[in-house]
Structure formats: C-alpha cells, structure tokens
Amino acid sequence: MKKSICLALCLLFINNLFAQKISSPDSCLELNFKLNTSGEPIYNLSYKDQVIIKDSGMGFLINSPDPFNQAFTITNITDLSFDQTWEPVWGENAQIRNQYNEMLVSLTQANTDRQLDIRFRLFDDGLGFRYEFPIQKNLRHFIIKEELTQFNMVADSKAFWIPADYDTNEFPITTSKLSEIASLIDGVRQEPLAAKAPSSTLAVQTPLMLKTNDGIYINIHEAALINYPAMFLNVGADLPSLDSHLAPDKNGNRGYIQTGSVTPWRTVVLSDDARDILSSNLILNLNTPSEIEDTSWIKPMKYVGVWWEYFTGGGSTWAYTDYQDIKLGQTDYSSLTPNGRHGANTQHVKDYIDFASEHGFNAVLVEGWNEGWEDNTAYVKEQIYSFTQAYPDFDVKELQEYAESKGVKLMMHHETTSSVVDYERQLHDAFEFMVDNGYDAVKTGYVGPITPRSEFHDGQWMVNHYNYVAKTAADYKIMINSHEAVRPTGLSRTYPNWLAQESARGTEFESFNGNNPDHTTILPFTRLMGGPMDYTPGIFQGDLSVYGPNKAKLSTTLVKQLALYVTMYSPLQMAADLKENYERFPDAFQFIKDVAVDWDNSYILEAEPGDYITIARKAKGKNEWYIGSITDENPREAVLDLSFLPVGKKYEATIYSDGKDAHWISNPQSYVVSKKRVSSKTKLKLQLVPSGGVAVSIKEL
Ligand code: NOJ
Ligand code: CA
After folding, report:
1. 367 C-beta closer than 6 A to ligand 1
2. Are residues 166 and 250 in the same domain?
3. What ranges in 301-458 are assigned the alpha helix state H?
C-alpha cells in the first residue's frame, strides 16, 4: 500500500475514535462531534467551559427499515474559517460581519452504503448545523418519517414558549420552567382566543427562548427553511432533552427529499448577556445572499390603512354587501345592494391617501377592496376571492391616479383564507394586475385551514408555497408582507422583497383583549429572531368601548405604542390607528412621523426577556437616532446611556414619556413631550409606568 493511502486510512481510523472539535472565533464556544458505539452521530456544545448542550443525537428515521442515524463511520472531515462583512438591502445594521469556524463531517453507513454529511458552523454568538444529502448511488430520494436531532439541555430552565400547532403561532407566550410545560400546555391551547387547531402534541414552537439557572440565555430556532417542514421541539418524557419534531403532511410524512439537497440550519444562539441575543445576526448569516440582483426597487416603508376599523367594532366591513344577500358563486356584484358600511370605498380610501400624503407615509393598505369577502367572518370559503376584480364602489383606476398625484402608493391585500391552490392559479394574473395599477407591495393572508389539500401551514408543501410566492413576487418587483405564514427563518436575506411577516400575536389581538403587558418584551427574543414582524403598533385610542360594543382595552400606555416602533424592528411599520386618533394627539404622532424604518446601527441598551427592552438605533444615512424602551406590568427606571452618539457634538432630544399619573389600565393616554440638550456623555434616567414606555428622537443641533 502506498504511504499516502496508509496515512489517510490511519487518519480516518483516528477520526472515528476521538471527538472532533471546533471553537468559535473568540474561543468561548466549543463544539464536539463524535460517533457513539452504535455509530450514531452525537454533538455537544459548551460555552466558557460550561456544558450547555450535553451529548445529543442526530439523524433521521426514513422510509427504510434501516434507520438513518446509526452504523455510520466518518469518511472525511473538512475544516474552514470564514470572515466576511456584507451589506443587507435593509436592516438593523448597514453592515453585518459573518465570521465562523466550520467543520463538515462526511459519514457513510456501513450496512447500506448511504452517505450523510453534517455541516457545523460555530460563531461567537452561537451554533448552526445542518444535514446535507449528497448525490449518491444508493439513495436517490426518500421520505423523512422523523428528524432525530436532539438539544439535550443540562438542566431545567426558564422557558418562554408557545405550544406546538402546525397551523398557527398566534398564542399568548407563557413563561414557566421547561418541566412545567406539560401541566400548562392544554390550558394555553384552550385559552379562548388561542389557535383554532388543537393538537395533543407535547411540544413547543421555535424560536424557543430559555434562561438557565446560571443565567445563560439560549435561543433555539432554525435558519433558511426551504423545501422542508418547520421544526417543533418535544418537551415530553425526555426532558431536559428537547427533541426535534417536524410538521407532518396530511399523510403523516414529514418531508420528501431528493438527494443533492440540504436541510435548514438548526440554530442555537447563546450568551450570558440577554442583549447579545437581540443583537445576534447568526440566523441571517446562515441564509444565502440575495437572489434578487437589482434590489433598487425594494424600499422599507411606513404605511397607514383602511384596516383597524375592521377590528374596533365600529361597524366597517371588508364585504361590500351583507352575507345573506349573496348567492353561492355570485358573479355580478353590481346588481347587489351595498351594506353601507363597506370600508374600502373610493372616497374613504382617498381620505386615507390625503392623510398619508400630508403626514409623509409611503403607502395606504386597503383591505376589503376585492370580491369574495361576504363570508369572511365565518371563513367558510363558499366564496373564493378574486385578486383582479374590485367591488363596484372601489375605483381602481381613479384611486391609482389619485394616489400617484399625492405621491403615495396603495398597498395590495390578498387574503386567501388558505385557498392556496386557487391563489397559485391566480398568482400571475394577480401580480400583473398589481403592476398594471401601480401597486408594488402586497399583504398576503392565510387565515383558516389550507384547502383543498388540507396540508398544514407549517408543513413542507406550504413552506414551498410561501417561498414560491416571495420568489414570484420578486419577478414582478413586488414586496411581500405575509400573515399567518410559517414563522420566518431569515429568508429575507435571500428574498429581501419579503419585508415582513406576522406569524405571532400582533396588535389585532389587542382588539380581543388578547395580548399581555409582557408580550412585546418577549417577542424580540422569540418570533423576531427569525425576521421582522408586521406588528402594526401605534394605537392611541386604546379603549375600544368608544366605538360600540367592543369592550377591549389595549395592554399598553400610549407611549409604549410609540416605543414599539424601535423595539419591534421591521422595515415595514404601520401606523395602525384611525387617522382621527392621530389628529387628536398631533405631538405624540410626531414621533411616528419621524421614526426611521431602516438603520445604520442598532444598540441594545437594556434587555431581559419578559421584563424590559431598551434599544437605540441610528437612522440610515442620517444623523438621527431613535430610542424605544418598554416595560412589562411593572414600572421601572430606564437608563439610556447615550455614549453611542459621536463624541464632541451637541444634540437635541425630544422625549416622549408616560405621564406621572399614567397607567396601562386606568390612564393610558397620559404623556409628556419634552426637549433636552444631550451629548455622548449623557445618561438619561426615565420613569416607565406599568406597561409603559419611553420614546426618544435625537437630532444634531
Ligand atoms: C388576519 C390578518 O392578520 C389581519 O391583519 C387581516 O386584517 C385579516 N386576517 C383579514 O385578512
Ligand atoms: Ca393574523
């Protein structure tokens, strides 16, 4: 035998005997990989010499009697170091450093000769790993019955969680020990405003936020969810091990795989400082660069809309006529009597265009413009939406011309009520209609069960649908804001036209008394880890009893609504309230008018999940900074250290604070606006009332 071959074989033998390790660039994290005595792939992770994830299994059960998680030998190991800085089209920072050490482990299964690769990337802020299925003779395609990835935690931890549900993420967030989830989960599922699709699974959704007893913050999620189902985490008998659990399809299969492909990345972001979780770019870094070459048409934006009036109980309807007046398959709306409460009528939309133009908003969302809404409240789907046919009182051409003359865009709305096959059938016509009529952004919606395939919102088939819509929209230079889609995984790096998603409880739940005061102190640590949320803040009139039968009250003060424009990062921000309410509070409204939606830098000043968040951001290309600070049901003093300001210059800060007598329950509209000279040496100490906030804008003098 040649010397070199002998050496290679010796190395392989050694590879199989000992753990393979890589460290993060700053050496704080260490990842170990090995095969156990059954040839099962095993990894563990430590941070500052403390084990964070104990030995955890990897692999798959597939449609073959030989499981795809044992009898492996290591056939190759490749290490790599990477360090590059890139510029997102929009974001919390104008530049993002992508620095990691990588290990690619190639495995072969002795009994079947099947190959599986596992790629690990270790960053200073955490770990990403994914499975890769190389093209190979003995495995062309297969069905995943279950992914066997484990996250074997060291001990019980505090967890911020929502229950697993393959169709929705719109749950209140519960804070408890991991070990308490089993006894609490059914209660959360039965919460009156919770999801519609109960599931008996003892599992939670990701991003899952954990805090160990030693004060280590750990976030588990995934990156680049493409052609694969979403991952949930079992919190059953195996605790504290969290075991992956993929959303199934309607036949109970988890994924249909063709070799020559990869899985999404499994991500673990961690630090002993909660602020580092919020400043992590690990998930974006694990996604691939933009597939859209010319991104000049993609613009972060602020918008208003014919929207909140549907939730206040004030009488507006999406539908043009009353439900009982419409016949199944109705095609001629012009012969029907309007119900007199249709929100999307030409004059009303013009009023919003005027308002947007006067106050500097980029766009006006109009929901209820198109045929098919008559049974929306029931979502029974007898009527399927048209995405090219407007109701008789919504004049597409006239509004297009009017909006253009006022320098404002109209934002399209495609509620599908999950008639997804029908949506795909209409998709090109719908996008052509948008282009022809001057629309460049669409809010999509997937309320209710997926018809006619009865797939789940989070299964592989639907994941492919959302990605197909984002990709196709890019061909038409259309930006997307999807509601009720699978939660994001950083794909906006690849498709920057996918500006935002909902995929959690947004402001709409405030209209059913559905959000807790700590909700928005947790969302940035959970749902927002995957990407921006169309949370739709800015409700000034929080007591909805003024409109009619709705007795709901917002769970925040008015000033906390302002602060959310900074703490809930999104390149797409709505001023969600009725225009009349902004006209009543013009000085507070000024903050929403001023605040930026795209940033050069972000500074996480204070953060504790479930308690408080304070963030400062520098507006892109401007010498302007905006700060938002929020608290849960407890009052607190926020300390705003302005040392991020360039040294030696004078600035004027406009401070929007809760009034001394403000309280989210009894007096949410009490606020004070004041001005103050500040510099990089200033430390502002500001008082936040229960579920209150503070918002600050800073301009150079
Ligand atoms: C639910 C969405 O989240 C909401 O914003 C929208 O108004 C309704 N569906 C109707 O499409
Ligand atoms: Ca929703």
Report:
1. yes
2. yes
3. 346-359, 396-405, 420-436
**Cα–ligand 1 centroid distance for 419 (angstroms):** 15
Domain count, the chain: 2
Is the predicted pLDDT of residue 379 greater than 60, yes or no? Answer: no
Is residue 393 in some structural domain? yes
- Tell me the pLDDT tens digit for each residue of 81-128: 999 999 999 999 999 999 999 999 999 999 999 999 999 999 999 999
Specify whether 331 is located in the same domain as 278: no
- 364 burial via Cβ count (<10 Å: 0-12, 13-18, 19+): buried
The number of the ligand nearest the C-alpha atom of 536 reads 1
Instruction: State pTM to two decimals.
Output: 0.97
Which residue minimizes the CA distance to atom 3 of ligand 1?
483
Q: Could you tell me the CATH number of the domain that includes residue 43?
A: 2.70.98.10
> Does the beta carbon of 483 lie inside 6 Å of ligand 1?
yes
445 in contact with ligand 1, CB cutoff 6 A: yes
Task: Give DSSP secondary structure letters for 503-540.
Answer: -S--GGGGGGT---TTHHHHGGGTGGGGS-B-------
**How far apart are alpha carbons 445 and 373 in whole angstroms?**
13
pLDDT in tens, 579-620: 999 999 999 999 999 999 999 999 999 999 999 999 999 999
For the CA of 484, the closest atom of ligand 1 is 3
Give the separation between CA 417 and CA 431, rounded to whole angstroms.
18
pLDDT per position as a tens digit, 620-659: 999 999 999 999 999 999 999 999 999 999 999 999 999 9
Q: For ligand 1, atom 6, which residue shows the shortest CA distance?
A: 445
Q: Is 368's C-beta closer than 6 angstroms to any atom of ligand 1?
A: no
Question: Over the stretch 414-428, which tens digit does the pLDDT of each residue have?
Answer: 999 999 999 999 999
CA-nearest residue, atom 7 of ligand 1: 307
- Residues 277 and 339 reside in one and the same domain: no
How many Å lie between the centroid of ligand 2 and the Cα of residue 492? 20
Please indicate, yes or no, whether residues 474 and 352 belong to a single structural domain of this protein: yes
Q: Say yes or no: 281 and 329 in one domain.
A: no
**60 domain residue, yes or no:** yes
Q: Would you say the CB of residue 415 lies under 6 angstroms from ligand 1? A: yes
In a domain, 48, yes or no: yes
Kindly provide the b/e burial profile for residues 185-195, where b requires at least 16 CB atoms within 10 angstroms of the residue's own CB.
beebbeeeebb
Q: How many Å apart are CA 557 and CA 630, to the nearest integer?
A: 10
Q: Which domain holds residue 79?
A: 18-285
pLDDT band at 192 (very low <50, low <70, confident <90, very high): confident
- Ligand 2 centroid to Cα of residue 379, in Å, is 13
Instruction: Give the residue numbers marked as catalytic.
Output: 508
Instruction: Supply the residue whose CA is at minimum distance from atom 10 of ligand 1.
Output: 415
What is the pLDDT confidence band of residue 337, given thresholds at 50, 70 and 90? confident
Q: For residue range 462-510, what is the model confidence (pLDDT) as tens digits?
A: 999 999 999 999 999 999 999 999 999 999 999 999 999 999 999 999 9
Q: Which of 423, 447, 536 is the best mutation target for the ligand 1 pocket, counting ligand atoms within 8 Å of the beta carbon and taking the most?
A: 447
Alpha-carbon gap, residue 384 to 371, rounded angstroms: 8
Cα-to-centroid distance, 435 and ligand 1 (Å): 23
Given a cut of 90, is residue 15 above it in pLDDT?
no
| 104 C-beta closer than 6 A to ligand 1 | no
> Residues in the chain, how many?
701
Taking the centre of ligand 1 as the mean of its atom positions, its distance from the CA of residue 502, in whole angstroms, is: 9
Whether residue 477 is found in the same domain as residue 344: yes
Residue 561 included in any domain? no
